[in-house]
Amino acid sequence: MQSKKIxxxxxxxxxxxxxxxxxxxxxxxxxEILEVHATDKGSKNDLAAWSKSGGHELVQDTEEDGIxxxxxxxx
Length: 75
What we know:
- A four-stranded mixed sheet has the order 1-2-4-3, with helices on one face.
- The protein is α+β, with helices and mostly antiparallel strands.
- It is globular and about 30 Å long.
- Helices cover 28% and strands 35% of the residues.
């Protein structure tokens, strides 16, 4: 998946991954993809709920070697 920007939120605890994601997605245009890398297990539910409530789309999420990766399309 082609992302416009990658946000490294590894090592950050709640609520920082959401705070940084909100700031990063503001820099994108509608339809562009933000890729977020996080290690906080709560990020999975948090980012899914935040995306939905903010009018964005969580396109995909995966986990590789303890790193959660999310692709969020700006709405």
